[in-house]
Write the structure tokens for this entry.
Amino acid sequence: MAAYVIGALTVHNTDWQQEYGAKMPALIQKHGGKLLARAPASQLEGEALLHGVTVMIEFPTTEQAQAWHADPEHLPLQKLRQGGSHMDMMLVGGL
């Protein structure tokens, strides 16, 4: 069953983006993931919950999504991103 990582990203500076952007796609692919969206969200109803840029990544299973997030190669990229942005991230299992 597919699983989706959804993140809301607020960028404070862009110093980290070149290195992060060069390495993250391969790490996502390593765990069977695919980037589905990276753009500001449009509000359709209710209160806005996703700020900044919304990122959506699809993984074949929740286990693969969790393995991506826990991968030791991910930690330095997380720290890099956290140095120039704020990310709220959640994992949603598919139907």
In short: DSSP finds three helices and four strands in the chain. Residues 3 and 93 are 4 Å apart (CA to CA).
